[in-house]
Design brief:
By secondary structure, the protein is α+β, with helices and mostly antiparallel strands. It has one domain: 3-Layer(aba) Sandwich (Glutaredoxin). Helices cover about 30% and strands about 25% of the residues. Strands 1-8-7-4-5-6-2-3 form an 8-stranded mixed β-sheet. β5, α3 and β6 form a beta-alpha-beta unit. GO terms for molecular function: oxidoreductase activity.
Length: about 170
């Protein structure tokens, strides 16, 4: 029981801390093809499959919560630099339990105004099962050939985002 409580405390501390900004982590999946993630759009009805078939760009998949301040910080950095990031497709992935807050997030960041930003709901927890993220935001960067290049945990700086998207 003590071990379970210690694990929960550690996991909570890791998930909520971001003192040093984003860090690149090794997943063992680097260089592998992007798996197919079957999700829904924010209406939780319309099905989408990631990678998006028409997408010939780099892909930036960000696992996030619409109420997470670090996720909002990273989103703002992306949107503030969207002109420089036109060749990257951004797919923000959230869990179904966050659906009640997603419309406020969409409205706050005006994500529908950007053709290269999509928001998906991981109703089947496919992304979570594949990557097992312990912290948000959790960003997986794929090149145009859909090979995993890097994974970041924590809010990425403007320069980290721009450099990661040059892959």
């Amino acid at each position: 029981m003590k071990h379970i409580l210690a694990y929960i405390l550690l996991a909570t501390t890791i998930a909520c801390s971001n003192k040093n900004g984003a860090q690149i982590i090794k997943t063992g999946k680097e260089g592998t093809d992007m798996p197919t993630f079957n999700m829904t759009m924010t209406d939780t009805i319309t099905a989408i499959s990631i990678p998006l078939s028409q997408n010939q760009n780099n892909s930036f998949l960000m696992y996030f919560s619409p109420t997470c301040p670090y996720c909002k910080m990273e989103t703002r950095r992306i949107i503030n630099n969207i002109e420089k990031l036109k060749k990257t497709s951004f797919i923000f992935i959230t869990e179904k339990k966050h659906i009640k807050n997603i419309n406020k997030f969409i409205s706050e960041f005006k994500t529908k105004n950007f053709s290269n930003i999509s928001i998906a709901v991981d109703t089947g927890r496919a992304f979570i099962k594949y990557f097992r993220p312990m912290q948000m935001p959790f960003s997986a960067i794929y090149d145009k050939n859909k090979k995993l290049q890097q994974v970041y945990v924590g809010a990425m700086s403007k320069n980290s985002i721009l450099n990661a998207c040059k892959i």
